[in-house]
Amino acid sequence: MSEFLFLGIDGGGTKCRARLRDAEGNLLGEGAGGPSNIRLDPDLVWTSILTACREALSQAGLQENDLGRVRAGMGAAGAGQRSAVARLLSRQHPFASFVIDTDAHTAWLGAFEGGDGAILIVGTGSCGYGVVDGQRRYVGGWGFEISDEGSGAAIGRDLLRRVIWAYDGRIPATPLSNAVLGDFSNDPEVLVDWVGKARPSDYARYAPLVLEHAHQRDPLGLELVRHAADEMAQIAMRLLDLGAPALCTFGGLAEPLRPWLPPPLQQLIVPPRADAIDGAVLLAKTSQSGGRNDCTGL
Amino acid sequence: MSEFLFLGIDGGGTKCRARLRDAEGNLLGEGAGGPSNIRLDPDLVWTSILTACREALSQAGLQENDLGRVRAGMGAAGAGQRSAVARLLSRQHPFASFVIDTDAHTAWLGAFEGGDGAILIVGTGSCGYGVVDGQRRYVGGWGFEISDEGSGAAIGRDLLRRVIWAYDGRIPATPLSNAVLGDFSNDPEVLVDWVGKARPSDYARYAPLVLEHAHQRDPLGLELVRHAADEMAQIAMRLLDLGAPALCTFGGLAEPLRPWLPPPLQQLIVPPRADAIDGAVLLAKTSQSGGRNDCTGL
Q1: Residues B98 and B168 occupy one common structural domain
Q2: Residues of A at the B interface, defined by Cβ within 8 angstroms
Q3: Contact A145 B164 (CB under 8 A)
Q4: Considering its fold, how many domains does chain B have in total?
Protein backbone atom coordinates (compact mmCIF):
# COMPACT_ATOMS: atom_id res chain seq x y z
CA MET A 1 0.00 0.00 0.00
CA SER A 2 2.94 2.39 -0.35
CA GLU A 3 2.20 2.95 -4.04
CA PHE A 4 1.66 6.57 -5.10
CA LEU A 5 -1.81 7.94 -5.77
CA PHE A 6 -2.37 10.87 -8.14
CA LEU A 7 -4.59 13.81 -7.36
CA GLY A 8 -5.64 16.36 -9.96
CA ILE A 9 -6.90 19.73 -8.71
CA ASP A 10 -8.69 22.40 -10.71
CA GLY A 11 -8.50 25.66 -8.79
CA GLY A 12 -11.12 28.24 -9.69
CA GLY A 13 -12.41 31.50 -8.26
CA THR A 14 -15.66 30.03 -6.93
CA LYS A 15 -14.75 26.40 -6.31
CA CYS A 16 -12.01 23.80 -6.23
CA ARG A 17 -12.44 20.37 -7.80
CA ALA A 18 -10.26 17.33 -7.14
CA ARG A 19 -9.99 13.85 -8.66
CA LEU A 20 -7.99 10.91 -7.32
CA ARG A 21 -6.62 8.17 -9.58
CA ASP A 22 -4.25 5.27 -8.98
CA ALA A 23 -1.08 4.64 -10.99
CA GLU A 24 -3.06 2.68 -13.60
CA GLY A 25 -5.44 5.62 -14.06
CA ASN A 26 -8.41 4.05 -12.29
CA LEU A 27 -10.81 6.59 -10.80
CA LEU A 28 -10.83 6.33 -7.00
CA GLY A 29 -12.83 9.37 -5.96
CA GLU A 30 -13.77 12.99 -6.54
CA GLY A 31 -14.39 16.01 -4.31
CA ALA A 32 -15.11 19.70 -4.29
CA GLY A 33 -14.09 22.62 -2.10
CA GLY A 34 -14.51 26.39 -1.87
CA PRO A 35 -12.77 29.25 -3.71
CA SER A 36 -9.20 28.51 -4.71
CA ASN A 37 -8.09 31.37 -6.91
CA ILE A 38 -4.49 31.47 -5.76
CA ARG A 39 -4.54 35.25 -5.47
CA LEU A 40 -6.77 34.77 -2.40
CA ASP A 41 -5.49 34.22 1.14
CA PRO A 42 -3.25 31.09 1.04
CA ASP A 43 -4.85 29.59 4.17
CA LEU A 44 -8.28 29.86 2.56
CA VAL A 45 -6.97 28.31 -0.67
CA TRP A 46 -5.36 25.41 1.21
CA THR A 47 -8.59 24.83 3.15
CA SER A 48 -10.47 24.61 -0.18
CA ILE A 49 -7.86 22.27 -1.68
CA LEU A 50 -7.79 19.95 1.34
CA THR A 51 -11.59 19.88 1.62
CA ALA A 52 -11.83 18.72 -2.01
CA CYS A 53 -8.96 16.30 -1.52
CA ARG A 54 -10.34 14.69 1.66
CA GLU A 55 -13.73 14.22 -0.01
CA ALA A 56 -12.04 12.38 -2.88
CA LEU A 57 -10.00 10.34 -0.38
CA SER A 58 -13.08 9.42 1.60
CA GLN A 59 -14.92 8.35 -1.60
CA ALA A 60 -11.95 6.11 -2.28
CA GLY A 61 -12.24 4.56 1.22
CA LEU A 62 -8.87 5.99 2.21
CA GLN A 63 -7.69 7.70 5.40
CA GLU A 64 -5.95 10.94 6.36
CA ASN A 65 -2.59 9.16 6.61
CA ASP A 66 -2.88 8.15 2.94
CA LEU A 67 -2.28 11.84 2.06
CA GLY A 68 1.41 11.10 2.44
CA ARG A 69 1.39 8.91 -0.66
CA VAL A 70 -0.65 11.36 -2.77
CA ARG A 71 1.17 13.22 -5.51
CA ALA A 72 -0.92 16.28 -6.31
CA GLY A 73 -1.04 18.50 -9.38
CA MET A 74 -3.01 21.71 -9.55
CA GLY A 75 -4.04 23.93 -12.43
CA ALA A 76 -5.03 27.41 -11.31
CA ALA A 77 -5.94 30.74 -12.80
CA GLY A 78 -3.28 33.21 -11.78
CA ALA A 79 -0.52 30.61 -11.47
CA GLY A 80 1.47 32.60 -14.01
CA GLN A 81 1.89 35.21 -11.27
CA ARG A 82 5.03 34.20 -9.42
CA SER A 83 4.24 36.13 -6.23
CA ALA A 84 0.84 34.38 -5.83
CA VAL A 85 2.46 30.96 -6.31
CA ALA A 86 5.19 31.78 -3.79
CA ARG A 87 2.54 32.85 -1.27
CA LEU A 88 0.65 29.58 -1.71
CA LEU A 89 3.82 27.50 -1.45
CA SER A 90 4.84 29.27 1.76
CA ARG A 91 2.42 26.95 3.61
CA GLN A 92 3.12 23.34 4.56
CA HIS A 93 1.06 20.65 2.78
CA PRO A 94 0.54 16.97 3.62
CA PHE A 95 1.19 15.52 0.13
CA ALA A 96 4.11 13.46 -1.10
CA SER A 97 4.49 16.18 -3.74
CA PHE A 98 2.57 19.18 -4.95
CA VAL A 99 3.03 20.92 -8.31
CA ILE A 100 1.09 23.86 -9.62
CA ASP A 101 0.77 25.35 -13.09
CA THR A 102 -1.62 27.61 -14.95
CA ASP A 103 -5.17 26.45 -15.69
CA ALA A 104 -4.31 26.85 -19.37
CA HIS A 105 -1.46 24.38 -18.98
CA THR A 106 -3.56 21.69 -17.27
CA ALA A 107 -6.36 22.23 -19.83
CA TRP A 108 -3.78 21.64 -22.59
CA LEU A 109 -2.30 18.62 -20.74
CA GLY A 110 -5.76 17.05 -20.52
CA ALA A 111 -6.86 17.99 -24.03
CA PHE A 112 -3.78 16.65 -25.83
CA GLU A 113 -2.46 14.31 -23.13
CA GLY A 114 0.82 16.15 -23.30
CA GLY A 115 1.13 16.09 -27.12
CA ASP A 116 1.51 19.09 -29.44
CA GLY A 117 -1.60 21.22 -29.62
CA ALA A 118 -3.24 24.43 -28.55
CA ILE A 119 -6.22 25.46 -26.52
CA LEU A 120 -8.40 28.52 -26.69
CA ILE A 121 -10.46 29.57 -23.66
CA VAL A 122 -13.28 32.02 -24.41
CA GLY A 123 -15.50 32.88 -21.47
CA THR A 124 -15.61 36.06 -19.38
CA GLY A 125 -11.99 36.54 -20.47
CA SER A 126 -10.07 34.86 -23.26
CA CYS A 127 -6.69 33.18 -23.59
CA GLY A 128 -4.81 31.09 -26.11
CA TYR A 129 -2.10 28.63 -25.13
CA GLY A 130 -0.17 26.04 -27.03
CA VAL A 131 2.74 23.67 -26.58
CA VAL A 132 4.79 22.61 -29.60
CA ASP A 133 7.99 20.57 -29.21
CA GLY A 134 7.91 21.29 -25.49
CA GLN A 135 7.81 25.06 -26.10
CA ARG A 136 4.99 26.90 -24.31
CA ARG A 137 3.31 29.87 -25.93
CA TYR A 138 0.60 32.15 -24.55
CA VAL A 139 -1.36 34.23 -27.04
CA GLY A 140 -3.75 36.77 -25.54
CA GLY A 141 -5.12 36.48 -22.03
CA TRP A 142 -3.37 39.62 -20.75
CA GLY A 143 -6.51 40.97 -19.09
CA PHE A 144 -9.68 42.90 -19.82
CA GLU A 145 -8.23 46.38 -20.31
CA ILE A 146 -5.75 45.67 -23.12
CA SER A 147 -6.34 42.04 -24.12
CA ASP A 148 -8.96 39.25 -23.78
CA GLU A 149 -10.17 39.74 -27.34
CA GLY A 150 -13.36 37.93 -28.31
CA SER A 151 -14.31 37.38 -24.66
CA GLY A 152 -17.74 37.91 -23.13
CA ALA A 153 -16.44 40.97 -21.26
CA ALA A 154 -15.08 42.45 -24.51
CA ILE A 155 -18.39 41.77 -26.30
CA GLY A 156 -20.33 43.46 -23.49
CA ARG A 157 -18.10 46.53 -23.42
CA ASP A 158 -18.20 46.87 -27.23
CA LEU A 159 -21.98 46.58 -27.03
CA LEU A 160 -22.30 49.42 -24.50
CA ARG A 161 -19.94 51.61 -26.54
CA ARG A 162 -22.20 51.15 -29.56
CA VAL A 163 -25.34 51.73 -27.52
CA ILE A 164 -23.86 55.14 -26.69
CA TRP A 165 -23.04 55.71 -30.37
CA ALA A 166 -26.64 54.91 -31.27
CA TYR A 167 -27.91 57.26 -28.53
CA ASP A 168 -25.65 60.03 -29.89
CA GLY A 169 -26.92 59.29 -33.39
CA ARG A 170 -23.46 58.27 -34.64
CA ILE A 171 -24.84 54.90 -35.83
CA PRO A 172 -28.42 53.74 -36.42
CA ALA A 173 -30.26 52.30 -33.42
CA THR A 174 -31.21 48.60 -33.68
CA PRO A 175 -33.54 46.39 -31.61
CA LEU A 176 -30.46 45.29 -29.64
CA SER A 177 -29.24 48.82 -28.87
CA ASN A 178 -32.78 49.91 -27.97
CA ALA A 179 -33.24 46.92 -25.65
CA VAL A 180 -30.00 47.68 -23.80
CA LEU A 181 -30.62 51.42 -23.53
CA GLY A 182 -34.09 50.54 -22.21
CA ASP A 183 -32.42 48.51 -19.44
CA PHE A 184 -30.78 51.78 -18.38
CA SER A 185 -34.05 53.77 -18.42
CA ASN A 186 -33.06 55.20 -21.84
CA ASP A 187 -30.64 57.46 -19.95
CA PRO A 188 -26.94 57.38 -20.84
CA GLU A 189 -26.10 58.90 -17.44
CA VAL A 190 -27.54 55.77 -15.80
CA LEU A 191 -25.45 53.64 -18.17
CA VAL A 192 -22.30 55.66 -17.40
CA ASP A 193 -22.92 55.24 -13.64
CA TRP A 194 -23.25 51.47 -14.16
CA VAL A 195 -20.00 51.40 -16.16
CA GLY A 196 -18.25 53.19 -13.27
CA LYS A 197 -18.85 50.14 -11.07
CA ALA A 198 -18.82 47.36 -13.68
CA ARG A 199 -16.40 44.44 -13.55
CA PRO A 200 -15.52 42.23 -16.53
CA SER A 201 -18.08 39.63 -15.37
CA ASP A 202 -20.79 42.33 -15.42
CA TYR A 203 -20.01 43.19 -19.04
CA ALA A 204 -19.86 39.50 -19.94
CA ARG A 205 -23.49 39.04 -18.87
CA TYR A 206 -24.50 40.82 -22.08
CA ALA A 207 -22.88 38.23 -24.37
CA PRO A 208 -25.92 35.88 -24.52
CA LEU A 209 -28.19 38.81 -25.45
CA VAL A 210 -25.81 39.84 -28.23
CA LEU A 211 -25.72 36.26 -29.58
CA GLU A 212 -29.51 36.02 -29.44
CA HIS A 213 -29.94 39.25 -31.42
CA ALA A 214 -27.26 38.20 -33.91
CA HIS A 215 -29.29 35.08 -34.61
CA GLN A 216 -32.27 37.32 -35.29
CA ARG A 217 -30.05 39.21 -37.78
CA ASP A 218 -29.86 42.41 -35.72
CA PRO A 219 -27.17 44.47 -37.54
CA LEU A 220 -25.41 45.47 -34.32
CA GLY A 221 -25.61 41.93 -32.91
CA LEU A 222 -24.16 40.57 -36.15
CA GLU A 223 -21.32 43.10 -36.13
CA LEU A 224 -20.37 42.40 -32.52
CA VAL A 225 -20.43 38.60 -32.87
CA ARG A 226 -18.49 38.74 -36.14
CA HIS A 227 -15.91 40.98 -34.50
CA ALA A 228 -15.55 38.66 -31.49
CA ALA A 229 -15.18 35.64 -33.79
CA ASP A 230 -12.57 37.49 -35.87
CA GLU A 231 -10.56 38.24 -32.75
CA MET A 232 -10.90 34.65 -31.54
CA ALA A 233 -9.73 33.56 -35.01
CA GLN A 234 -6.71 35.87 -34.85
CA ILE A 235 -5.56 34.16 -31.63
CA ALA A 236 -6.24 30.70 -33.08
CA MET A 237 -4.33 31.47 -36.28
CA ARG A 238 -1.29 32.60 -34.34
CA LEU A 239 -1.32 29.33 -32.33
CA LEU A 240 -1.55 27.31 -35.56
CA ASP A 241 1.23 29.39 -37.15
CA LEU A 242 3.39 28.50 -34.15
CA GLY A 243 3.03 24.85 -35.15
CA ALA A 244 0.02 23.56 -33.19
CA PRO A 245 -1.59 20.84 -35.34
CA ALA A 246 -5.03 21.15 -33.73
CA LEU A 247 -7.10 23.25 -31.32
CA CYS A 248 -9.37 22.47 -28.38
CA THR A 249 -11.75 25.16 -27.19
CA PHE A 250 -13.09 25.81 -23.69
CA GLY A 251 -15.27 28.39 -21.95
CA GLY A 252 -18.90 29.35 -22.24
CA LEU A 253 -18.50 31.32 -25.47
CA ALA A 254 -16.30 28.88 -27.39
CA GLU A 255 -19.21 26.76 -28.68
CA PRO A 256 -21.52 29.70 -29.55
CA LEU A 257 -18.72 31.48 -31.45
CA ARG A 258 -17.43 28.37 -33.24
CA PRO A 259 -19.89 28.48 -36.19
CA TRP A 260 -18.80 32.09 -36.85
CA LEU A 261 -15.13 31.13 -37.30
CA PRO A 262 -13.68 30.67 -40.79
CA PRO A 263 -14.32 27.04 -41.90
CA PRO A 264 -10.59 26.20 -42.22
CA LEU A 265 -10.27 27.01 -38.52
CA GLN A 266 -13.41 25.16 -37.50
CA GLN A 267 -12.00 22.01 -39.12
CA LEU A 268 -8.95 22.10 -36.87
CA ILE A 269 -10.98 22.12 -33.66
CA VAL A 270 -10.96 18.70 -32.02
CA PRO A 271 -12.64 17.43 -28.84
CA PRO A 272 -10.33 17.30 -25.80
CA ARG A 273 -9.12 13.81 -24.90
CA ALA A 274 -9.56 14.55 -21.21
CA ASP A 275 -10.56 17.49 -19.04
CA ALA A 276 -8.37 19.92 -17.10
CA ILE A 277 -8.68 17.91 -13.85
CA ASP A 278 -7.20 14.87 -15.59
CA GLY A 279 -4.66 17.29 -17.04
CA ALA A 280 -3.75 18.11 -13.43
CA VAL A 281 -3.52 14.34 -12.67
CA LEU A 282 -1.07 14.10 -15.57
CA LEU A 283 0.84 17.10 -14.19
CA ALA A 284 1.17 15.27 -10.85
CA LYS A 285 2.32 12.07 -12.60
CA THR A 286 4.86 13.59 -14.94
CA SER A 287 6.45 15.98 -12.46
CA GLN A 288 9.97 14.72 -11.95
CA SER A 289 10.43 15.55 -8.34
CA GLY A 290 8.88 13.79 -5.38
CA GLY A 291 9.88 16.56 -2.97
CA ARG A 292 7.70 19.04 -1.19
CA ASN A 293 6.64 22.45 -2.45
CA ASP A 294 7.79 21.96 -6.00
CA CYS A 295 6.60 24.44 -8.50
CA THR A 296 7.44 23.37 -12.02
CA GLY A 297 7.31 25.25 -15.22
CA LEU A 298 7.08 28.70 -13.73
CA MET B 1 -21.67 102.47 -9.14
CA SER B 2 -24.62 100.09 -8.78
CA GLU B 3 -24.13 98.81 -12.34
CA PHE B 4 -23.60 95.06 -12.69
CA LEU B 5 -20.16 93.57 -13.35
CA PHE B 6 -19.73 90.24 -15.12
CA LEU B 7 -17.39 87.51 -13.96
CA GLY B 8 -16.51 84.49 -16.10
CA ILE B 9 -15.10 81.43 -14.31
CA ASP B 10 -13.42 78.43 -15.88
CA GLY B 11 -13.42 75.60 -13.34
CA GLY B 12 -10.86 72.89 -13.94
CA GLY B 13 -9.39 70.00 -12.01
CA THR B 14 -6.08 71.70 -11.27
CA LYS B 15 -7.00 75.40 -11.29
CA CYS B 16 -9.75 77.94 -11.50
CA ARG B 17 -9.50 81.00 -13.73
CA ALA B 18 -11.67 84.11 -13.51
CA ARG B 19 -12.11 87.24 -15.64
CA LEU B 20 -14.06 90.36 -14.77
CA ARG B 21 -15.67 92.62 -17.40
CA ASP B 22 -18.04 95.55 -17.20
CA ALA B 23 -21.35 95.79 -19.04
CA GLU B 24 -19.59 97.19 -22.14
CA GLY B 25 -17.23 94.25 -22.19
CA ASN B 26 -14.13 96.12 -20.99
CA LEU B 27 -11.59 93.93 -19.23
CA LEU B 28 -11.29 94.93 -15.56
CA GLY B 29 -9.15 92.15 -14.10
CA GLU B 30 -8.20 88.48 -14.05
CA GLY B 31 -7.37 85.96 -11.33
CA ALA B 32 -6.60 82.34 -10.63
CA GLY B 33 -7.39 79.90 -7.84
CA GLY B 34 -6.93 76.26 -6.90
CA PRO B 35 -8.72 73.10 -8.01
CA SER B 36 -12.38 73.63 -8.86
CA ASN B 37 -13.60 70.39 -10.35
CA ILE B 38 -17.10 70.53 -8.92
CA ARG B 39 -16.98 66.87 -7.92
CA LEU B 40 -14.53 67.95 -5.19
CA ASP B 41 -15.54 69.17 -1.73
CA PRO B 42 -17.82 72.21 -2.25
CA ASP B 43 -16.02 74.31 0.38
CA LEU B 44 -12.71 73.73 -1.41
CA VAL B 45 -14.29 74.62 -4.76
CA TRP B 46 -15.80 77.83 -3.38
CA THR B 47 -12.45 78.78 -1.85
CA SER B 48 -10.83 78.35 -5.29
CA ILE B 49 -13.58 80.33 -7.01
CA LEU B 50 -13.46 83.19 -4.51
CA THR B 51 -9.65 83.33 -4.55
CA ALA B 52 -9.71 83.74 -8.35
CA CYS B 53 -12.56 86.22 -8.12
CA ARG B 54 -10.97 88.43 -5.42
CA GLU B 55 -7.73 88.56 -7.42
CA ALA B 56 -9.68 89.81 -10.44
CA LEU B 57 -11.56 92.30 -8.26
CA SER B 58 -8.34 93.59 -6.74
CA GLN B 59 -6.77 94.02 -10.21
CA ALA B 60 -9.82 96.09 -11.07
CA GLY B 61 -9.28 98.27 -7.98
CA LEU B 62 -12.56 97.07 -6.46
CA GLN B 63 -13.46 96.04 -2.92
CA GLU B 64 -15.07 93.05 -1.22
CA ASN B 65 -18.43 94.82 -1.07
CA ASP B 66 -18.44 95.09 -4.87
CA LEU B 67 -19.03 91.31 -4.94
CA GLY B 68 -22.71 92.11 -4.45
CA ARG B 69 -22.94 93.61 -7.92
CA VAL B 70 -21.03 90.81 -9.65
CA ARG B 71 -23.03 88.44 -11.81
CA ALA B 72 -20.93 85.30 -12.17
CA GLY B 73 -21.02 82.51 -14.75
CA MET B 74 -19.00 79.33 -14.43
CA GLY B 75 -18.17 76.58 -16.90
CA ALA B 76 -17.05 73.39 -15.19
CA ALA B 77 -16.21 69.84 -16.10
CA GLY B 78 -18.76 67.61 -14.40
CA ALA B 79 -21.51 70.23 -14.36
CA GLY B 80 -23.68 67.79 -16.33
CA GLN B 81 -23.85 65.77 -13.10
CA ARG B 82 -26.87 67.14 -11.24
CA SER B 83 -25.77 65.87 -7.82
CA ALA B 84 -22.40 67.67 -8.04
CA VAL B 85 -24.09 70.92 -9.05
CA ALA B 86 -26.62 70.61 -6.21
CA ARG B 87 -23.76 70.04 -3.74
CA LEU B 88 -21.96 73.17 -4.95
CA LEU B 89 -25.12 75.27 -4.83
CA SER B 90 -25.89 74.16 -1.28
CA ARG B 91 -23.36 76.79 -0.11
CA GLN B 92 -24.05 80.53 0.15
CA HIS B 93 -22.18 82.81 -2.26
CA PRO B 94 -21.63 86.58 -2.20
CA PHE B 95 -22.56 87.30 -5.85
CA ALA B 96 -25.61 89.07 -7.24
CA SER B 97 -26.14 85.90 -9.25
CA PHE B 98 -24.27 82.71 -9.99
CA VAL B 99 -24.95 80.36 -12.88
CA ILE B 100 -23.07 77.22 -13.75
CA ASP B 101 -23.00 75.09 -16.86
CA THR B 102 -20.71 72.50 -18.45
CA ASP B 103 -17.25 73.46 -19.67
CA ALA B 104 -18.40 72.36 -23.14
CA HIS B 105 -21.24 74.86 -23.01
CA THR B 106 -19.05 77.83 -22.03
CA ALA B 107 -16.46 76.79 -24.64
CA TRP B 108 -19.24 76.84 -27.24
CA LEU B 109 -20.62 80.17 -25.93
CA GLY B 110 -17.19 81.74 -26.28
CA ALA B 111 -16.35 80.13 -29.61
CA PHE B 112 -19.58 81.11 -31.37
CA GLU B 113 -20.71 83.95 -29.09
CA GLY B 114 -23.97 82.11 -28.63
CA GLY B 115 -24.59 81.42 -32.34
CA ASP B 116 -25.13 78.03 -33.99
CA GLY B 117 -22.01 75.90 -34.02
CA ALA B 118 -20.26 72.96 -32.50
CA ILE B 119 -17.10 72.32 -30.56
CA LEU B 120 -14.91 69.27 -30.33
CA ILE B 121 -12.57 68.80 -27.37
CA VAL B 122 -9.81 66.23 -27.87
CA GLY B 123 -7.33 65.92 -25.03
CA THR B 124 -6.99 63.21 -22.40
CA GLY B 125 -10.69 62.54 -23.06
CA SER B 126 -12.87 63.69 -25.92
CA CYS B 127 -16.28 65.30 -26.26
CA GLY B 128 -18.41 66.87 -28.95
CA TYR B 129 -21.04 69.51 -28.24
CA GLY B 130 -23.16 71.69 -30.43
CA VAL B 131 -26.05 74.12 -30.19
CA VAL B 132 -28.35 74.57 -33.17
CA ASP B 133 -31.54 76.64 -32.92
CA GLY B 134 -31.14 76.67 -29.15
CA GLN B 135 -31.05 72.85 -29.03
CA ARG B 136 -28.07 71.41 -27.17
CA ARG B 137 -26.48 68.17 -28.31
CA TYR B 138 -23.65 66.19 -26.77
CA VAL B 139 -21.89 63.64 -28.97
CA GLY B 140 -19.35 61.42 -27.21
CA GLY B 141 -17.69 62.37 -23.95
CA TRP B 142 -19.27 59.54 -21.95
CA GLY B 143 -15.98 58.50 -20.36
CA PHE B 144 -12.87 56.45 -20.99
CA GLU B 145 -14.31 52.95 -20.67
CA ILE B 146 -17.05 53.14 -23.32
CA SER B 147 -16.59 56.51 -25.05
CA ASP B 148 -13.98 59.29 -25.49
CA GLU B 149 -13.10 58.10 -28.97
CA GLY B 150 -10.02 59.66 -30.58
CA SER B 151 -8.74 60.90 -27.20
CA GLY B 152 -5.19 60.64 -25.90
CA ALA B 153 -6.29 58.00 -23.38
CA ALA B 154 -7.92 55.95 -26.15
CA ILE B 155 -4.79 56.24 -28.33
CA GLY B 156 -2.59 55.09 -25.43
CA ARG B 157 -4.78 52.11 -24.58
CA ASP B 158 -5.02 51.05 -28.24
CA LEU B 159 -1.24 51.35 -28.44
CA LEU B 160 -0.67 49.04 -25.46
CA ARG B 161 -3.18 46.51 -26.81
CA ARG B 162 -1.21 46.37 -30.06
CA VAL B 163 2.12 46.18 -28.24
CA ILE B 164 0.74 42.99 -26.64
CA TRP B 165 -0.40 41.73 -30.05
CA ALA B 166 3.08 42.31 -31.40
CA TYR B 167 4.62 40.53 -28.40
CA ASP B 168 2.26 37.57 -29.01
CA GLY B 169 3.20 37.60 -32.69
CA ARG B 170 -0.33 38.39 -33.78
CA ILE B 171 0.89 41.45 -35.71
CA PRO B 172 4.39 42.47 -36.83
CA ALA B 173 6.48 44.45 -34.35
CA THR B 174 7.39 48.01 -35.38
CA PRO B 175 9.87 50.56 -34.00
CA LEU B 176 6.96 52.04 -31.99
CA SER B 177 5.83 48.73 -30.46
CA ASN B 178 9.45 47.81 -29.71
CA ALA B 179 10.10 51.17 -28.04
CA VAL B 180 7.05 50.82 -25.80
CA LEU B 181 7.72 47.20 -24.88
CA GLY B 182 11.28 48.26 -24.07
CA ASP B 183 9.86 50.81 -21.60
CA PHE B 184 8.34 47.81 -19.78
CA SER B 185 11.61 45.83 -19.74
CA ASN B 186 10.32 43.79 -22.71
CA ASP B 187 8.11 41.94 -20.22
CA PRO B 188 4.35 41.89 -20.79
CA GLU B 189 3.82 41.05 -17.09
CA VAL B 190 5.37 44.42 -16.22
CA LEU B 191 3.06 46.07 -18.74
CA VAL B 192 0.01 44.28 -17.32
CA ASP B 193 0.97 45.40 -13.78
CA TRP B 194 1.21 48.99 -15.03
CA VAL B 195 -2.19 48.72 -16.71
CA GLY B 196 -3.68 47.53 -13.40
CA LYS B 197 -2.90 50.92 -11.86
CA ALA B 198 -3.19 53.14 -14.95
CA ARG B 199 -5.61 56.06 -15.16
CA PRO B 200 -6.76 57.69 -18.41
CA SER B 201 -4.13 60.43 -18.01
CA ASP B 202 -1.41 57.74 -17.80
CA TYR B 203 -2.51 56.21 -21.10
CA ALA B 204 -2.76 59.67 -22.67
CA ARG B 205 0.91 60.30 -22.01
CA TYR B 206 1.67 57.93 -24.93
CA ALA B 207 -0.17 60.05 -27.50
CA PRO B 208 2.82 62.30 -28.38
CA LEU B 209 5.03 59.22 -28.94
CA VAL B 210 2.40 57.71 -31.25
CA LEU B 211 2.16 60.96 -33.24
CA GLU B 212 5.95 61.19 -33.47
CA HIS B 213 6.21 57.63 -34.85
CA ALA B 214 3.32 58.21 -37.23
CA HIS B 215 5.25 61.13 -38.70
CA GLN B 216 8.17 58.75 -39.20
CA ARG B 217 5.74 56.45 -41.08
CA ASP B 218 5.79 53.71 -38.43
CA PRO B 219 2.97 51.37 -39.59
CA LEU B 220 1.51 51.01 -36.08
CA GLY B 221 1.79 54.75 -35.40
CA LEU B 222 0.06 55.49 -38.71
CA GLU B 223 -2.74 53.03 -37.95
CA LEU B 224 -3.37 54.43 -34.46
CA VAL B 225 -3.37 58.08 -35.53
CA ARG B 226 -5.59 57.35 -38.53
CA HIS B 227 -8.00 55.48 -36.26
CA ALA B 228 -8.12 58.34 -33.73
CA ALA B 229 -8.71 60.87 -36.53
CA ASP B 230 -11.49 58.67 -37.97
CA GLU B 231 -13.19 58.54 -34.59
CA MET B 232 -12.79 62.30 -34.12
CA ALA B 233 -14.26 62.72 -37.63
CA GLN B 234 -17.22 60.51 -36.75
CA ILE B 235 -18.11 62.82 -33.82
CA ALA B 236 -17.59 65.93 -35.96
CA MET B 237 -19.76 64.55 -38.78
CA ARG B 238 -22.60 63.85 -36.40
CA LEU B 239 -22.45 67.43 -35.07
CA LEU B 240 -22.52 68.79 -38.64
CA ASP B 241 -25.39 66.47 -39.54
CA LEU B 242 -27.30 67.93 -36.61
CA GLY B 243 -27.06 71.31 -38.32
CA ALA B 244 -23.92 72.92 -36.91
CA PRO B 245 -22.51 75.17 -39.68
CA ALA B 246 -18.94 75.15 -38.33
CA LEU B 247 -16.65 73.56 -35.76
CA CYS B 248 -14.15 74.87 -33.23
CA THR B 249 -11.64 72.45 -31.76
CA PHE B 250 -9.98 72.47 -28.34
CA GLY B 251 -7.65 70.25 -26.35
CA GLY B 252 -4.04 69.22 -26.77
CA LEU B 253 -4.70 66.66 -29.51
CA ALA B 254 -7.09 68.73 -31.66
CA GLU B 255 -4.32 70.51 -33.56
CA PRO B 256 -2.07 67.44 -34.08
CA LEU B 257 -5.02 65.37 -35.35
CA ARG B 258 -6.48 68.09 -37.56
CA PRO B 259 -4.30 67.40 -40.66
CA TRP B 260 -5.42 63.73 -40.50
CA LEU B 261 -9.12 64.62 -40.81
CA PRO B 262 -10.87 64.43 -44.19
CA PRO B 263 -10.36 67.78 -46.02
CA PRO B 264 -14.13 68.57 -46.16
CA LEU B 265 -14.10 68.47 -42.35
CA GLN B 266 -10.89 70.47 -42.00
CA GLN B 267 -12.47 73.25 -44.05
CA LEU B 268 -15.31 73.61 -41.56
CA ILE B 269 -12.99 74.19 -38.60
CA VAL B 270 -12.92 77.87 -37.65
CA PRO B 271 -11.01 79.71 -34.93
CA PRO B 272 -13.03 80.45 -31.78
CA ARG B 273 -14.22 84.06 -31.47
CA ALA B 274 -13.49 84.06 -27.76
CA ASP B 275 -12.28 81.63 -25.13
CA ALA B 276 -14.28 79.62 -22.59
CA ILE B 277 -13.76 82.22 -19.84
CA ASP B 278 -15.41 84.87 -21.99
CA GLY B 279 -18.02 82.19 -22.75
CA ALA B 280 -18.63 82.12 -19.00
CA VAL B 281 -18.86 85.95 -18.95
CA LEU B 282 -21.53 85.63 -21.66
CA LEU B 283 -23.26 82.96 -19.58
CA ALA B 284 -23.38 85.39 -16.65
CA LYS B 285 -24.71 88.18 -18.88
CA THR B 286 -27.39 86.23 -20.69
CA SER B 287 -28.75 84.38 -17.69
CA GLN B 288 -32.27 85.74 -17.18
CA SER B 289 -32.44 85.66 -13.45
CA GLY B 290 -30.65 87.94 -11.03
CA GLY B 291 -31.44 85.75 -8.05
CA ARG B 292 -29.09 83.67 -5.98
CA ASN B 293 -28.08 80.08 -6.58
CA ASP B 294 -29.49 79.84 -10.06
CA CYS B 295 -28.45 76.92 -12.12
CA THR B 296 -29.58 77.28 -15.70
CA GLY B 297 -29.68 74.78 -18.45
CA LEU B 298 -29.25 71.69 -16.32
Answers
A1: no
A2: 80-81, 138-140, 142-143, 145-147, 157, 160-161, 164, 168-170, 188-189, 191-192, 195-196, 198, 234-235, 238, 241-242
A3: no
A4: 2
